[in-house]
Amino acid sequence: FDKTYFLDANEGGEKAYELLIHAMKETGKVAIARVMIRTKETLAALRIWQDTVVMETMFYYDEVRRPELLPPSRPAKLHENEIKMAVSLVQNLSTKFEPEKYTNEYRQALREMIEAKVAGEQIAVPAAPEGGKVIDLMDALKASLAAVEQKRVSAASASSATAGQVKKTRRKKAVT
Hints:
This protein is of the alpha+beta class and about 180 residues long. It is about 40% helix and about 15% strand. Strands 1-4-3-2 form a four-stranded antiparallel β-sheet. The chain starts with a strand and ends in a 13-residue tail after the last helix.
């Protein structure tokens, strides 16, 4: 998918809108449509999300690079313990997805640069980041698992330490 749009009924179209929602939910189907956005025809999928019709623009078949066009990859030999560690790491780092936690950092940096330019400030071009160094995957997996386990142990010991403490309150004197 490319972009998402939330659709609502125009005045007088409320019944058709609700009927579409119920029919699509009951059948579990997604509708495919051609739509005009500005001056460009695009392919879109209509689906139901939280009792709302959502339109997501899609790429046409010829706009998507097919895997057979990619250069052939060399299969790597994986050891069972590497697979177990990688799966364990993924499971330990998995959390509920909260979209509000993610922001478009590029857009924010661009906005700040534009505001600085409008304010008459000199814009400095940031230095390009250095390339990453090659690391041993097994060592990285072990270190990541150890860090996740340490966080769990720290959180558990902190909560158990505060759980045993009893809060003392002062006696209040009666007002006469």
